[in-house]
Amino acid sequence: MDSRRDFIKKSALLAGAAGLSGMLPFSVQKAFADRGNPLLASVPPMGWNTYDCFQGAANEDIIKQIADYMVSSGMKDAGYVYVILDAEWYQDNTTRTNAWDKYGRLIPDITKFPSSANGNGFKPLADYIHSKGLKFGFHIFRGMFKDIYNANPPVKGTTYHTKNVTDTSNVSSWCIYNYGLNMKHPGAQAYIDAQFELYNQWGIDFLKIDDLVDPYESLEVSGYHTGRAKLKRPILISGSPGGGPNLQHAANLQNNMEMWRVTSDVWDHWNDIYKQFDSARDWAPYTKNGTWADLDMLPFGQLRDNWGPDPGKVIWTKLTNDEVKTCMTLHCISRSPLIMGGDVRANDAFTLDVLINRDALDANKNGSKQREIYGDASTRKWISTVHGTNIKYLAIFNTGLTSRVIDQGLVDIGFPEGALVKDIWNKSESGKITGTFSPTIPAHGVGFYKLDSPDI
Q: Any idea where the Alpha galactosidase C-terminal domain is (predicted)?
């Protein structure tokens, strides 16, 4: 099965190479406290990313069409506000060469993004997205691209060049595009600062930094936060990839970025969905307002085939409808960021309904004390509470191969007098239930419920 990492390797070879009352971590809060945005990610960030459906083929027209759809479909009103370009926005798809400026900073490929010509960069596209009430971001790899290192341009504002600030011994175990930066060299921070200066000019709101948290690059993690904290414009940082960061890095992550991947790449295969459960459970205590453990993108709708016999072919997600709801429910109740991976222009009614279900999104935005309360080989149960109310969200997952009844005692989850139960996905209310709640859950499916205390 090809992964996102495998795709990056292939491309490079062709090129030749926090609880409801929680606050933003102090260092981030301090950086933005005087700039009108003390809480950069008060709820889990929501948006759309190019990678699962376009890989490196996204262009300016596509991005504008996606932005238009996010507004017209109701996705924006539901909270999906980030439009994010993943890898290779700087690369010509024919020559496989990268574009950068005289200071070794990546710039958009003008064949994909014509409005970026004449030094405009992403500002015209960002302006268009902002005019829709949305926010714009993109993906970079940490450190120094190897072709920029070899060209050795100057680092802006210094007497150094890119070879001076690069650590060629710091290489990724999976990505052959880049070297790490030598953060003990003063020019390394200057190189990062110059990148953020450019992003600020373009009007960027979101930066996904790859090869940063697995393996964990603590000095560069801090360096990127230091760079963005010097700006007047707040830029959200998303650390990637996942499957890696050890829990020992939780405090450093919380102090330096708003979201970070905690799973390896998730594609439209049940095994990928299943592996999210343990990561969500382990990282739940570290997910609170301003800092979010990221379960990766939502591989729904129209995608590029990344693990079948014809990589790159346009396909519909191989997840069943029940598996889609399982994935979405786990993201919502664990309060993971919600970044749609499919081409939303091709959404069917089911996919759009899952993405904008109001009660599911309320659990994602307003839940607290989210946690797994039971887990075995075929059953997982999660609960969260809306702060200051009697409302709780309950998710009962059947990860087994057959449909079955799964019991849940209501007294055990804080409802000794019974509960009013609303089925979130079926959009139905069961009235008052006492004693034991016993829904039938389909294979690889989920029951997702909103519970409230009855009037007594």
A: 392-451
